[in-house]
Design goal:
The chain has 225 residues and is mainly α. Helices cover 77% and strands 0% of the residues. The chain is globular, with a radius of gyration of 17 Å.
Length: 225
């Protein structure tokens, strides 16, 4: 059953949850202290950390999901705890200053969308249609942010970042799901450039690429491609 889980899954979920906490509350805090200590502006250090979190938490766990989990229940529980745990500091005005900012709570969007897309993948019976968009959001957007942060020293949008993202998303998309994966990788890399208020790339990148994969998969458009 899709909403059952094994003892092995419980143990692995616990380990992964501990890993996420280690990265978010120890590793990135040390990175922040190191960068700021070397004269890097605090805001720049924060955005480097956000991309480290993208890749080492969301990205790494996404890669493991098809090989470890039979259903979404434990993942949903972990995502719920992490989402609330990252939302409350905003609400209470006690931010985790080494990776959160007052301007937005996009890291919460990241967690929630990761959980939503992954759960939908299990429900439709093809987890790879969910894993690939979360890889785009984690590793693709991660390298995008690092490139932009290195060039502009602030959070901004530029096509240099999107080109860097495409170098990740296109080959990974093709490797995992062929031409359809490639197409979704191109779309994800382009859509990342645009955002409107609360509708940031942590929502648009996984959502658009997931919808493209669903359309091709269920209309039969991928047949023969």
């Amino acid at each position: 059953m899709i909403f059952t889980f094994s003892l092995q899954e419980s143990v692995i979920t616990t380990v992964l949850f501990a890993w996420v906490l280690f990265v978010s509350h120890f590793l990135t805090r040390r990175v922040y202290d190191y960068l700021v200590g070397r004269g890097v502006p605090a805001r720049v250090a924060i955005y480097y950390n956000r991309k480290i979190l993208h890749m080492l938490t969301g990205g790494l766990v996404a890669i493991l999901v098809p090989y470890v989990f039979q259903g979404p229940l434990l993942l949903m529980l972990m995502v719920a705890i992490l989402a609330v745990g990252n939302y409350l500091p905003h609400r209470m005005k006690k931010l985790f200053y080494w990776y959160q900012v007052e301007d937005n709570m996009y890291e919460v969007h990241f967690i929630v969308m990761w959980g939503v897309i992954m759960t939908l993948g299990f429900l439709i019976g093809n987890i790879w249609l969910a894993v690939l968009p979360t890889i785009f959001m984690s590793f693709g957007d991660g390298i995008t942010g690092i490139v932009r942060n290195s060039i502009y020293k602030k959070r901004t949008k530029s096509w240099w970042g999107n080109i860097a993202m495409m170098t990740i998303c296109v080959p990974v998309g093709y490797l995992l799901l062929g031409i359809v994966g490639l197409i979704s990788g191109v779309a994800a890399s382009i859509i990342e450039k645009f955002e409107y208020k609360w509708l940031d790339d942590n929502i648009t990148v996984p959502l658009i690429s997931f919808l493209i994969l669903i359309i091709f998969n269920y209309t039969g458009a991928a047949a023969g491609i």
